[in-house]
Amino acid sequence: MTTFADQTLEEQIAQWRAYIRRRQGLHGPDVEELEGHLRDQLAALTEADLTGDEAFLVAVKRMGNLDALSREFARAHSERLWKQLVMAPDADEPANKSYAETLVVLGLAVAAALAIKVPALFGHPINPNEEFPVFYARNASLFVFPLLTAYFMWKRGSDVVSGLWLAMPFAAGAVLANVFPFSKGSDTEVLTLLHLPIALWLAVGFAYVRGRWFADGGRMNFVRFLGELAI
């Protein structure tokens, strides 16, 4: 049976095991078999560069498809999702790493706020007494998604070359949204408003899975993340 060096992950497995053993009708061999399945899932997910918390979340939900007890555990411990999605470091995480992530997140949040204000300097102000500028609707995804991509790249430890490749779709999107001669209210402009965010969200997905889009179940991991984020 696979043993993990990540102590936090082993503690999460122990919590799951204790929960399963409290249920009547399950004997030692049954629990060991279920734990073996769980550890196999975790091994595959951690090899795909998921963090311990992410791997545990996904593995337990997959186990929920096999038996009702695991499904009940996943439902009871759904708060672990927020540990993955928001900046909530483990209690035993090194303080310097926690502070670094706090600074990165705050820096990116400030950058997003400034990105929305900068167009006002170039003749695109937001006036509550006037019609909302279509410029902001066309560029909405460009104010946030590049910074979210940067966060995932930092979190996953991606290299500079990957960053340059991922910068290309955002550059192309910026050119399309601001250089193409749209007619006001045209079908082309409406299609751009609807589909540009979807296209750029895929770039965010590549950063999330660290480029493993076509291997190791990367696409499905991102789909799960998207569904859990929406929930």
- Uncertain stretches: 79-92
For the secondary structure, the number of strands is 0
Measured distance between first and last alpha carbons: 34 Å
The number of helical runs is 10
Broad shape: elongated
Nearest-integer average pLDDT: 77
Structural class: mainly alpha
Radius of gyration from the CA trace?
22 Å
Portion of residues within helices: over 70%
Largest sheet: none
What is the succession of H and E elements?
HHHHHHHHHH
Strand content: under 5%
Overview of this structure, please?
The chain is 71% helix and 0% strand. α6 packs antiparallel against α7 and α7 packs parallel to α9. It is elongated and about 70 Å long. It starts with 6 loop residues before the first helix and ends with a helix. About 6% of the residues have low confidence.
Compile the SSE list and pairings.
Layout: H1 7-21, H2 28-47, H3 52-63, H4 68-76, H5 80-85, H6 95-117, H7 134-156, H8 160-179, H9 187-208, H10 218-230
Helix pairs in contact: 1-2, 2-3, 3-4, 6-7, 7-8, 7-9, 8-9
